[in-house]
Give the backbone structure.
Amino acid sequence: MSTPFDEEAFRTEPEARALVSRIHELLREELRGEPVSLMEVCGTHTVAISRAGIRSLMPDGLKLLSGPGCPVCVTPLSEIDRAIGASTLPDVILTTFGDMMRVPGSQSTLEKERAEGADVRILYSPLQAIEIAEESPESQIVFVGVGFETTSPTIAATVVEAARRGIGNLSVFPFFKTVPRALDMLARVPGRPLDGYICPGHVSAIIGSGAYEPIAREHNMPCVVTGFEPLDILAGIVMLLEQAASVRAGGNAKVETQYSRAVTREGNLAAQAVIADVFQECDAEWREIGTIPMSGHEFSERYRAFDARDRIDVDVPAPAGPSGCICGEIMLGQKLPTDCPLFATRCTPREAVGPCMVSTEGACAAFYKYDRETTEVP
């Protein structure tokens, strides 16, 4: 069992107190009290920030915004509906990670379809789909491929292994997204200034910190790859504020790595190689955000036979999103979860309306669990 987080012990820890003091000092003196907005673009960071109460430690004028770093949250309705439709077909065994089960589509969820008899199975590793395919040769085994560069290598490796074994009844919905193109898009949105990115540690371990260098260079946007412990996050904020002060004084932004114990500039070359072998870049739709050019992965020609979109014939209804949900604005850093009129009223983790409340890494779920006592709820 994991040890419960002791927020009071963290707040009184000397290193934490020193980092928080430095954050206040930087905003007050180096940045002259002018507003600063930093965005974390990883759902694990979002949860860690809320769990540790880090927002409540920040000085007035420093905003920590949640970006589109929850893969379940950015999966569009059309893709959710396609997976749900496939699950209802009589010869299909749909396999998925558990966080997809309760994500609402236009008319249903995978959880509801399973309750009504659909064969939907939760996997802990995509390699389990190969075992199911070998055990059930009369069925089509479909894996719902959702995730960023952290999960796509293991799914790509699964496809390579299935091809090696000659398994013909396994296919994958390639609903993958990539992080750097999304960060580039966010940096281009007019009227919403950002002063720095808290870059994701897990994704960066795969793609390397060098993947963010074009963003820092082209947008003069400070980027710091940060670990997930509370002290990591505080140290990353200090590094970003130091860069922000330099940029406002006419300096150039750069990419720094606070999480050097796990992340290198080059990243995991073996994981990158299997991604490049199995997938190719493509335009991708992000839920409530729109299409971001070359921000997704689809199958390369060599592995196109594993594309479930070609193999599984599904009628997908016209997407019908929940009325009143502002998940899109939350994922763009334009609003906080507590700005949503549905938050903690119609929309709760038990009865979620939008995807940001369904996923454990969603901003709304994190705010609901950890921040409601310190943030005004409409």
